[in-house]
TrEMBL record:
InterPro entries (alphabetical): Glyco_hydro_b, SAM-dependent_MTases_sf
Name used for this protein in its record: 23S rRNA m(2)G2445 methyltransferase
Record flagged with keyword Transmembrane: no
Top-level taxonomy: Bacteria, Pseudomonadati, Planctomycetota, Planctomycetia, Pirellulales
Coiled-coil region: none
UniProtKB keywords: Methyltransferase, Transferase
Signal peptide: none
GO BP field: methylation
GO terms of molecular function: methyltransferase activity
Length: 312
């Protein structure tokens, strides 16, 4: 269940077309109005079901609108091919997807900065080997991977959908990071981590943004394994704890983000605290809710995050 007692992290982007930034303009009636570097979109947002728009006039002049019933985008103005968002340390391309997404989740901005907090910058560690290792599971189009890559990590980006993995590679290319150490893996997250346990490979930072439901990539005979969050998360978390680097000079970390009501932060925190797979005596947990904020101060809920540091 969701926890109502968590502090919130409110994200406000100041919109300027020149810098390529994001802004939440308004929300209500189950939808949100957003600007992507001046390109205005209107799309569904279940978190806004019980709110009313602040200024209905703002909704009259949009460039693109996603219809949740037909699963189609309607364009008044074509989506700019080179539309990228400045994520403060790296840039991310945008694209309209058949699911109403845009290629990144702006509410994760504070988490990207947290991921970049260790090491300090790529230049600080670029000449040192080995690089700290970061693993991004259910990595989508790679914003968290880019955040870690910008901070000097050697990154493994894992997602079951090849278009998402290809998009992560494109993001690295747009940042001119083709020569930085990153692996792009079309794979089932749980199976990949289980193999890493057997290989005795370890990571300093592991990022998880699991969906409530999903499919693994097709196998040779065309079969797929179904992912269900309530059933499959706990054995995956067990294995994630097994691959945290026990010898790192820097404290290992886990970032878990969630967007459904089936499993909330209290369940994740309770599971991690009771684990016997790793020394939890120095476990420091920071759990909070994410919110996107309009320029007028209205806040739209955007899920939760649990940040764990296993201090040495």
């Amino acid at each position: 269940m969701w926890s109502s007692r968590l502090p919130t992290i409110s994200i406000l982007y100041q919109m300027t077309e020149e810098s390529g930034t994001y802004q939440l303009i308004d929300f209500g009636n189950g939808r949100k109005l957003e600007s992507l570097a001046g390109y205005v979109i209107d799309r569904p947002s279940p978190a806004a079901d019980f709110d009313q728009p602040e200024d209905r006039r703002l909704w009259n002049d949009v460039d693109a609108r996603f219809d949740g019933a037909t699963k189609r985008w309607e364009f008044r103005r074509p989506w700019p091919k080179s539309l990228v968002i400045d994520c403060d340390g790296f840039i991310m391309p945008t694209r309209p997807t058949p699911f109403g997404h845009i290629g990144l989740f702006p509410e994760q901005a504070d988490n990207w900065q947290w991921l970049r907090g260790q090491p300090k910058s790529y230049s600080d560690v670029a000449s040192h080997e080995p690089h700290p290792k970061g693993l991004n599971l259910f990595g989508y189009t790679g914003a968290s991977s880019m955040a870690m890559l910008s901070a000097g990590f050697e990154v493994a980006h894992v997602d079951a959908a090849k278009p998402n993995v290809d998009a992560a590679a494109k993001a690295a290319e747009l940042n001119n990071w083709q020569d930085r150490p990153i692996r792009y893996l079309v794979d089932d997250a749980a199976k990949f981590v289980a193999r890493e346990v057997r290989r005795e490979r370890h990571y300093h930072t592991v990022v998880l943004d699991p969906p409530a439901y999903g499919h693994s990539p097709k196998q040779s005979r065309g079969s797929t394994k179904t992912w269900r969050l309530e059933r499959d998360l706990w054995p995956l978390l067990d294995n994630v704890l097994r691959i945290l680097d026990p010898s790192s000079d820097v404290s290992p970390r886990i970032l878990f983000t969630g967007h459904t009501e089936s499993i909330g932060p209290d369940e994740v925190i309770g599971f991690l605290k009771q684990s016997r797979l790793i020394d939890t005596s120095g476990l420091r947990i920071d759990a909070s809710r994410s919110q996107l904020r309009t320029a007028s101060g209205r806040e739209l809920d955007a899920g939760f995050q649990v940040r764990c540091v296993f201090e040495r």
